Amino acid sequence: MQKQREYYQKIIETKYDYTVMLKNFLSAFIGGGLICILGQLFYDFYFSVLHQSEVLSGTYMTLSMIFISGILTAIGIYDQLGQIAKCGLAIPITGFANAAVCSAMEYHKEGLILGIGANCLKLAGSVLVLGTTSAVIVATIRYLFEVVI
Asked: CA within 20 to 30 Å of 87's CA: 11, 30, 34, 69, which one?
């Protein structure tokens, strides 16, 4: 029994290289920060220069970020940036656009309807379902806390 425990401990033992972890953390932090700065620049451009309302500026900014990440994915640059910025590039809305475009590109040989149309949100569909479900659960918990407390 003791041999099994030692063997199991040896298997699950994880070697941490903290310098690599720190480098990945900083890459993600800086990459995500640059995405946020770019989004803020778009927002300020729409709000201050084009004199749009706050709501429309936010909508246009989101659409601009989705469009740019879709184009960068289609021409193959987004994946290279993702290797540098790690999850800092994948977590914002740009990561969702990347997932949708990648799914569409994978099935483009099957045609517009059955290929791209049917599979465009294949990968992102699970994100939508799980995100919506978790939002409902969190909203329910918050509502219960507000009513009870």
From this structure: 11
